[in-house]
Amino acid sequence: MQDLFDSSPEHPSNDSDQPSVTVDMTAPLAARMRPHKLADYAGQNHLFEPGKPLYEAINRGKLHSMLFWGPPGTGKTTLARMIAASCDCYFIAISAVLGSVKDIRQAVEQAKLQKAKGKQTLLFVDEVHRFNKSQQDAFLPYVEDGTFIFIGATTENPSFEVNNALLSRARVYVLKSLDQDALKNILQRALSDSEKGVGHLNIQTTQEASEQLISLADGDARRMLNFLEMAVDLADKNAQGNLVIDKAVVLSLMGDKARRFDKGGDAFYDQISALHKSVRGSNPDGALYWFCRMLDGGCDPLYIARRVVRMASEDIGNADPRGLQLAINAWDVQQRLGSPEGELAVAQAVIYLAVAPKSNAVYKAFNQCMKDVRTEPSYEVPIHLRNAPTKLMKELEHGAAYRYDHDEPDAFAAGQTYLPEEKLGQGVNYYQATERGMEKQIVEKLIRLRARKN
Asked: Is 388 strand, coil or helix?
């Protein structure tokens, strides 16, 4: 797959129609290095192969409304601007962080004027998920009648954050975090470009420093260029008068910078999902990795500890009841001691649960029983199971036929029923223990007890 830095004809562009761009050298490096033609766009190769909808739409100049969904620094705004230029559209940008319905109205009026002149308008809405329902609804009539082509950008899952009406009228394109090759190309361009980048400063970077900058970027080109700009400010000149950026300079920028992790966002829920599924899949390495990733991203360890308790009941259950106790103990240690002692205790619980025998029998039994309780009538408690604390209740024979299990052989009143009479003929068997871990012993006991008669 080709990189979008490749300027081959495969990548649609109308470079000859692009006006020369005046660069403000006082602007941040990331803003100056923003590409202005599709041939210079880095990454997202999965969207720009011949036959792909976005590629074909741009190549043929037949645009449709769309949503760009992806993490920060992946080029959503840049791509929208280049599509407008490539397809000769009038470009209007609105930020949902600062915008209002008034800004939408103004954009509509501008688009109508351009349409009267025979020119198509591309309206780009950054952080579209920040607009409320009524603000998002305001776009619908103009998307429908072709007043403008709508492109929204969001870091949040459109399924949850964008109105269904708007979502149904726009195609979603997922932009991925930039890989190392794409980031390396962006870094090299910034270091060598004397007009927009820092090429005029005669900078020497060691391979270790470059690798560290790419790693520090965490898939975000803007983040990498910001760190490069700070590194330039900290770099010293060598005997030849060149600025030298080495690994030590880059490491001095890091401090406690956390990797990309949006509490409450998709990265948050994706990572806790990965942790849970690694435990369920009996993979201690994967479970520990995602646990550490969440800690590194700034997640509250108490949140993870609470979820680990859930994992103990949902995926281990009675196959190893010690798992639940260990999870609760780890939660308690985290509350009492904090970091780092508490995090080590939670890590111990995570690893224990990952290697413990697995059973979701309790989880399935609970869910099925709750479903029945919520959908069936409120059946009466059988007479023999009812409490009889008063004389009247005893006269009504509440509990009269009850057999006290401890007085029976093996403390089991064979044949005594415990479900409502209406459910006795339904073959109810909510708890179906597995033959793993301690549940194997439970299965054997239940089979033995159920085989006994009155």
From this structure: coil
Nearest to 361 by CA among 277, 258, 438: 438
State both tokens at 345. 């205790």
Residue 103 has pLDDT above 80, yes or no: yes
Cα radius of gyration (the chain): 32
For residue 193, with 0-12 CB atoms within 10 Å meaning exposed, 13-18 middle and 19 or more buried, which class applies?
A: middle
- Phi-psi label, residue 264: left if phi above 0, alpha if psi -120 to 50, beta otherwise: left
Domain annotation covers residue 28: no
Neighbours of 382 (CB within 10 A): 17
pLDDT tens-place string over residues 115-126 = 999 999 999 999
What DSSP assignment string belongs to 28-80?
Answer: -HHHHT--SSGGG--S-GGGSSTTSHHHHHHHHT----EEEE--TTSSHHHHH
Distance CA 368, CA 306 (A): 23
Number of domains in the chain: 4
124: β partners: 93, 151
- Same domain? For 275 and 294 the reply is yes
The CB density around residue 167, as the number of other CB atoms within 10 Å, is 16
- Say if CB 404 and CB 414 are below 8 A apart: no
Q: What is residue 321's DSSP assignment?
A: T
* Segment 407-439, tens digit of pLDDT: 988 888 888 888 998 888 888 889 999 999 999
What token pair was written down for 20?
């020369």
3-state secondary structure of 122: strand
Query: Which DSSP letter does residue 6 get?
Result: -
Q: How far is the C-alpha of 90 from the C-alpha of 139, rounded, in Å? A: 17
Asked which of 127, 154, 174 is the last residue of a domain, the reply is: 174
One domain for residues 333 and 391: no
- Is there a single domain that holds both residue 128 and residue 200? no
Phi, psi of 113 (to 5 degrees): -60, -45
| Residue 260 falls inside a structural domain | no
Look up the domain containing 404 and give its range. 379-450
3-state secondary structure of 205: strand
Q: Are 185 and 40 in contact (CB under 8 A)?
A: no
